[in-house]
Amino acid sequence: MEMLRKRFRGLYDFRFLIRQLVSKDIKLKYRRSFLGYLWSVLNPLLVMLVLVIVFSSMFRFDIENYPAYLIIGQTLFSYMTESTNQSLTSITGNASLLKKVYVPKYIFTLSKVTSSLVNVLFSLGAMLIVFIVTKVHFSFYMLLIPIVLIELYMFCLGLSLFLAQLSVFFRDIQYIYAVITTAWMYLTPLFYPMESLPEKVQQGVRICNPMYHYIDQFRTLVLEACMPPASTWGYGFGVAFVILVIGTWTFRRSQDRFILYI
Question: Which pLDDT does position 11 carry in this prediction?
Fold first, then answer.
């Protein structure tokens, strides 16, 4: 309990630095961009439009309100890949600063995951436009969307901490992870219905793929206007907590050796 209190105290003490790092990441992403922050809305809309044309016209997936179905999966999965990919170099990319002054090392990884979350909040504007155009029924269940985002944030933070410390010692992990995320994307029902997979593969996805559950929760709240099953909430929070604990433990265990490798 005392250790947990110290961790929260450390976050509070360095809150200004975290704010500055998040702000810097966001500004760098849109620096010299003609559209600026508007691109956060236009980009998911344009990607969704291309995918809708390809998969609804050519492959003809029979999914009701396919644009909304697609943009939900696309937005949440993009957050996971963006936050974890940026976190891979969150320690090695700040080597010069870490060698000069004492800063809690996890702050750099935390800022990457948080700045990506801010980008997702911008993308919700694009999602809202799609919901309005496709006449999604707005219900009180949508008020639970922040809970899904909290689950996903915890999961991404834990995975990012694990990858960040791993990439300090094994620089090739970023290339391996790119292959993993590509396979992960195709094993997550982003642009196809879950029912199109063989039964055994469906079971494997439900058991081993947390992203399926986070996306399914979001879609259930929005497209079905009802409460996801308690088992789905339990799985989502359970996996997020376990991954966060593993990521934090491995990061703390190895952080004192970072200075020897960066």
Answer: 63
